[in-house]
Write a structure and sequence with these properties.
The complex is a heterotrimer of chains A (291), B (215) and C (216).
Chain A lengths: L2 H6 L3 H17 L10 H11 L6 E7 L5 H18 L2 E6 L5 H13 L10 E6 L4 H7 L3 H4 L26 E6 L3 H13 L3 E5 L4 H9 L5 E4 H15 L9 H43 L1
Helix pairs in contact in A: 2-11, 3-10, 4-5, 4-10, 10-11
Chain B lengths: L3 H19 L3 H22 L1 H15 L5 H26 L7 H32 L6 H17 L3 H4 L3 H10 L1 H25 L13
Chain C lengths: L2 H18 L7 H37 L1 H4 L2 H11 L8 H33 L10 H19 L10 H50 L4
Helix pairs in contact in C: 1-2, 1-7, 2-4, 4-5, 6-7
The chains are: A alpha/beta (291), B mainly alpha (215), C mainly alpha (216).
């Protein structure tokens, strides 16, 4: 076995250790690298910024713990943006594996930071099964799908919802989604019912969603942790008092930087090893051929 | 009869949804809305359908003391505990079905969340290992893929601009042009494929609901 | 720190490390955590489905006003019928309910894919090429990309003649798209790792050090 093959056959646990150490260092010693914003996120932020106090925003928690590190910062930033602007927030969840608790945790944590009242400034209607069926039915009457909020208060008795009956009473719906749910909002809620839709998607889904963004089916798009970090930057610039709170994804981008470099190095190293061993084999083959 | 009924039911339901899309008559709209409400309920039942198979499988494993049968006890106990708290905790506490579930929430925060999140985070290590071992430039297509990947990877992280100037702008251009074009092509193709498959199911040519019984 | 939080943090840390132990090699502690994971996930679903959907959308509405809401019972009956598949004598009833369920969703899928995917995407590909500018170049790139990718996935005709070079162009677009997706996937996976490591450092080690040193 030549040196190149030895490097190529390195125990994968060394790779794991390098990744873990590369991720841990920036967590322990943040670097504060600057995050630049992109139009996809700016469009969403600007649309949210254009609303007047009292207007209604729907935020749908369509993810669970499996993608929370990516989507939690977006959720926090969007909710903070709504509360700081005095927008009324209707929160729902469509993701079965943890979306309900994820929404509850994020909403009540952020709500505590502002002088807002449940039922008047925000309401959590809970998780609902059915996905597409829920989205279709809400076009006509949200109260049929969510007869009560999670405290058990009847829809018709919640002050915030007195003038909110379907999508036409909501300025924008923001889905923080994993998997296919973000797509549903674009191809059903936007395409069929004309509701402006903003999406915060996992990085795995984001490349596909650029097609929806360009076609105007999404107002804006936050893709993965970078998207969340961009929203945090925009929020911090517009409302400096929120800067110290809304920075989880910005900090995460330090780690992303280091681990991305490590993985790029792995790709390059793997290919160098491959090219080197291939030329070695060719040379050896040539020697054998000439003997 | 047993085989024809599901085909007819599937056709009627599917065809109605399609027809209702184009018809604004109050009767059709009303029926369509009622159908949505019914399916919200049916989906709820369907979501826990796998629990029965899961319980059967693990009970058999325990009875026969098959490999890892002790873990099956753990699985069933976790399932039972979580389900019990979800179903009854609020009722036992306050007499209401909709209400606080502190123990259920505690288990979500300290067991469900770390387990699910960590399980998925293993992929970070796997993908790094795969990048080292399997991402080989063996032809021009692979080279194009790798160049796009590296540019996008650099463009998405703050440090990228120090290593490759304008990496953010270049990666944005890639995302908004060639990536978008390919995604759109795939999207249109997949949507047409899904639509044609839907027509086949509605017409009873494909019968996924038969589970092999009526094919 | 409350006792429940303290115990919870230690449990979460143990379960996190138990799953990570798989990276060294498969082991009983990992399999134990895996078993808990499967059980807890399914158990979570059962509770959630009951108190978020079945109770408020079916039971409560039927009990409150059975007259106008009678039709909801059909949903409940169909839902229960799904479980007939486990009883051999009446397993055919399960197929009936499943047929309604599948019929509805393929109907919705059919319309949404055509109306929500194909039409807007095709409409947005009809881009102007009338001026000589960078925008026109990008528009042309998108049009060529979309068409060539569609042709690449068109298998009803062999890729010979003019289709061959066009589908080759499609391959390059797809490769760029896959490369971009790979880059994004890396970011997604690392994000999850960041979440867990941040918990271990900020949520477990640091509070415990603070507790031991007396400042917690």
């Amino acid at each position: 076995m030549d040196d190149a093959q030895k490097i190529g056959g390195i125990d994968k646990r060394w790779v794991y250790i390098l990744v873990a150490v590369g991720a841990l260092i920036p967590i322990l010693m943040p670097m504060g690298l600057p995050v630049k914003t992109t139009p996809a996120v700016e469009q969403l932020f600007d649309r949210m910024e254009s609303f007047e106090p009292g207007q209604v925003v729907m935020v749908s928690f369509d993810y669970g713990p499996s993608s929370a590190p990516e989507l939690d910062p977006m959720a926090d930033a969007v909710l903070r943006h709504c509360f700081v602007k005095g927008l009324r927030v209707v929160v729902i969840s469509l993701f079965p594996l943890g979306g309900d608790n994820q929404a509850k945790q994020a909403l009540y944590k952020v709500a505590e930071e502002f002088p807002v009242v449940e039922g008047e400034d925000y309401v959590y209607l809970g998780y609902k099964d059915g996905g597409l069926a829920v989205l279709r039915r809400m076009a006509e009457d949200i109260s049929i799908v969510f007869p009560k909020d999670t405290r058990g208060v009847e829809y018709s008795e919640i002050p915030l919802l007195q003038d909110v009956w379907n999508y036409s009473d909501i300025e924008i719906s923001v889905s923080l989604s994993t998997g296919i749910i973000g797509e549903w909002w674009a191809i059903l809620v936007n395409a069929q019912f004309g509701q402006p839709v903003g999406v915060g998607a996992t990085a795995v889904s984001a490349p596909k969603y650029y097609a929806y963004l360009k076609a105007g089916q999404m107002v804006g798009l936050m893709g993965g942790m970078k998207g969340g970090a961009e929203y945090e930057v925009l929020l911090g610039n517009a409302y400096p008092e929120l800067k110290s709170r809304s920075n989880v994804a910005i900090k995460g981008m330090d780690v992303q930087s280091i681990v991305h470099l490590i993985i790029i190095a792995f790709i390059l190293m793997g290919n160098l090893v491959y090219l080197f061993s291939r030329s070695e084999r060719k040379r050896a083959g040539g020697r054998l051929g000439s003997q | 009869m047993k085989r024809q009924v599901p085909i007819v039911l599937c056709f009627l339901t599917g065809a109605f949804v399609v027809v209702a899309f184009f018809i604004g008559h109050p009767l059709v709209v009303d029926l369509n809305e009622k159908l949505d409400e019914l399916l919200i309920i049916v989906t709820a039942f369907a979501l826990v359908l796998g629990v029965v198979s899961f319980a059967q499988h693990h009970t058999k494993k325990i009875q026969r003391k098959q490999k890892d049968w002790r873990n099956s006890i753990v699985s069933l106990t976790s399932l039972g505990l979580m389900a019990f708290l979800g179903l009854f905790e609020s009722m036992l506490k306050s007499g209401a079905v909709i209400g606080d579930r502190p123990a259920f929430d505690w288990l979500f925060t300290y067991a469900f969340t770390p387990l699910q999140a960590t399980m998925f985070s293993l992929l970070a290590f796997m993908i790094a290992s795969a990048a080292f071992r399997a991402f080989r430039i063996k032809n021009v297509e692979a080279a194009v893929l790798m160049i796009a990947a590296v540019i996008v990877m650099l463009g998405r992280v703050p440090i990228g601009q120090y290593i490759l100037p304008h990496s953010l702008e270049i990666s944005e251009w890639i995302m908004n042009n060639p990536n978008l074009a390919a995604q759109r092509g795939i999207l249109i193709g997949a949507a047409l494929g899904a639509a044609s498959m839907a027509i086949r199911v509605i017409l009873g040519i494909e019968r996924p609901y038969m589970g092999g019984a009526g094919d | 720190m409350a006792l429940s939080s303290f115990a919870g943090i230690w449990l979460a840390a143990f379960l996190t490390l138990a799953i990570y132990s798989f990276l060294y090699k498969d082991n009983p502690v990992y399999r134990l955590a895996e078993s808990i994971f499967v059980g807890v996930s399914l158990g979570y679903e059962i509770g959630l489905v009951f108190y978020r959907t079945i109770w408020p959308n079916l039971v409560e509405r039927l009990l409150a006003d059975p007259g106008p809401n009678w039709y909801l019972a059909i949903g409940g009956i169909l839902g229960i019928m799904l479980y007939c598949r486990y009883i051999p004598k009446v397993s055919f009833l399960g197929r009936w309910a499943l047929a309604v369920y599948i019929g509805y969703f393929v109907g919705v899928e059919l319309m949404q894919r055509l109306h929500g995917d194909v039409l807007p995407q095709v409409r947005d590909t009809m881009l102007p090429l009338s001026s000589l500018s960078s925008v026109t170049f990008e528009n042309l790139l998108i049009i060529v990309g979309v068409l060539s990718v569609l042709i690449y996935f068109y298998f009803s005709k062999p890729h010979t003649g003019i289709l061959k070079p066009v589908s080759r162009i499609g391959v390059y677009f797809i490769m760029i798209c896959f490369g971009a997706s790979f880059g994004y996937t890396i970011m997604a996976r690392i994000s999850l790792l960041i979440g867990r490591l941040t918990f271990l450092v900020e949520g477990w080690v640091k509070p415990m050090i603070a507790l031991i040193s007396g400042s917690g």
